[in-house]
Amino acid sequence: MSRELGTDRELQATKAVIGELAKHLDVNICLELWDGTIIPLGEGAQEEIRFVIASANVLRRLLRQPSLISVAELYATGDLDVVGANPIDAMRQVDHLQFLSLPRKVNKARMLKMALPILLKSYSVSSFVKRFTKKAGVTPTSGRNDKEMIGFHYDLSNEFYELFLDKEMVYSSAYFPTPDSSLDEAQLNKLDLICRKLRLAPGDKLFDPGCGWGGLLCYAARHYGVEAYGTTLSEEQFAHVKTKVANMGLGDRVKVELRDCRSLADDQIFDKIAQVEMIEHVGIANHQDFYKYLRKHMRPRGVYFGQASFRRNTARLEDFPRLTPYMQFIIKYIFPGGELDHIGMTTGALEQAGFEVHEVEAVREHFGHTTEHWVRRLYDRKEEGAALVGMPQTRIWLLYLSLCALSFHRGALNAFQVVATNRRSGASGIGFDRTTIYGGARRVDPDDARANILKSA
User: Fold this and answer.
1) Contacts of residue 236, Cβ cutoff 8 Å, sequence gap at least 6
2) CB neighbours (10 Å) of residue 8?
3) Strand locations in 61-197, DSSP E?
4) CB-neighbour burial class of residue 162 (10 A; exposed 0-12, middle 13-18, buried 19+)
5) What is the rounded radius of gyration, in angstroms, for the C-alpha atoms of the chain?
6) Burial annotation 74-98 (CB, 10 A radius, 16+ → b, else e)
């Protein structure tokens, strides 16, 4: 890709501006300019990991429009690159708070004078960004088109997701027995834990709205003998689950439909419902109504399991709806219409909808490990990703997953598992001793499960 690198005046101005900014930074990385000049951004910064600026257009864009979206678009197109490490390892070297505090530290008049040769031109936006921005605008001007928004995220291609997910294609936080457990082991451990938290038993009717690639449906049917039903709005996911179910011989116990999970027949009643990282797609304003809808399709004291990502609550409640730069990036390029609430909002909405909340477990660090695995796996196969969806799209995903991993590791984002029941007067049926329930897997052989179901019929 040809770029206008910049004039000699722009090069000298870039060196001067970055040199001035570096006086107020102390991070363990260097910047490399398009002429090969390397500028350390901290005392004793190592040159092994470097951010590479491909042209004067990069600094021009960042000076005129300093934002995470600008960084993301420049990284996607390769105008801003990282050498010597994958994105998450490079970003670990950077205290982003130092960059946020720069405007208060620098002499703005002096900086403007230095940057004048750069700022005389307007920055250019790549054709990829223009195309992608148009594509990303799938949210209708009025209302929500959930099928379009789900398709935008999940219908990239199943092969792309296979590059970084585990063997079961589970696109949610794993549950690591130990920090050095493999991703495949941790995801199977998570699936089994969900089944135990749901108190699944042979013959239970399980509903998984937004069932993804069918990992939980098939696992619960095979190991716990349940009748599993799932819905998805993603055509790619639907095709994958249908094939998976047929290949595993689970057609008599697992059913999946390409439909909105809110379009069930009134007489469809379930014993257990598992909502695994799909509430983020519903929209906060719709949460309480959605929980009421789920409760309507559960038997009395039916068990609900929810797992989701959350933002921290704010000191002033009125400040919470304000989108962070991270969420602005996510909505534009990854999850159109996506919204994260805080855990208090979720438990409150469940209670208002008629549920009794029994358990809340934080799994933030598990999600940090999960997304870090995803980054490393996708980075190692980024050329295959580029062949499937293009390198800019692949790089956007690398940045997205890296930001997720760091946000969970640092506590900027959280994740929780919630267990609740369809409230009725009297005993909950959840039981007293959680250590017995969660202390070890109680898997049911599928043939034994089927025999038990026939005996009880």
Assistant:
1) 154, 155, 156, 157, 158
2) 9
3) 80-83
4) middle
5) 25
6) bbbbbbbbbebbbbbbbbbbbeeeb
**What is the C-alpha to C-alpha distance for residues 4 and 255, in angstroms, rounded to an integer?**
55
Q: What one-letter code names the amino acid at 132?
A: F
Tokens, residue 157 = 């291609």
Q: Tens digits of per-residue pLDDT, 76-131?
A: 999 999 999 999 999 988 887 787 788 888 888 998 999 999 998 887 666 556 55
Q: Which amino acid is at 208?
A: D
Q: Do you know the residue count of the chain? A: 457
Please tell me the distance from the alpha carbon of residue 444 to that of residue 450, in angstroms, as a whole number. 10
Q: How many CB atoms lie within 10 A of CB 13?
A: 23
Under a CB-based contact definition with an 8 Å cutoff, are residues 218 and 250 in contact? yes
Q: Could you give the strand order of the β-sheet that contains 355-362, starting from the edge strand earlier in sequence?
A: 254-258, 227-232, 205-209, 270-276, 298-311, 413-422, 355-362
What are 134-183's pLDDT values in tens digits?
Answer: 444 444 344 557 677 676 777 788 999 999 999 999 999 999 999 999 99
Q: Is 211 among the catalytic positions?
A: no
Token pair of 325 as six digits = 């730069």
With contact defined as beta carbons under 8 Å apart, do 93 and 402 qualify?
no
Please state whether beta strands 30-32 and 38-40 pair in parallel, antiparallel, or not at all (unpaired).
antiparallel
CB contact set of 400 (below 8 Å; sequence gap of 6+): 329, 330, 333, 334
Catalytic residue (one of 30, 195, 211, 404): 404
Helix (H, G, I), strand (E, B) or coil at 253: coil
Quote the pTM value.
0.89
Angle (nearest 5°) at CA 376 between 373 and 379: 145
Say if residue 418 is exposed, middle or buried (CB neighbours under 10 Å; 0-12, 13-18, 19+).
buried
Which tokens hold the place of 297? 């399709």
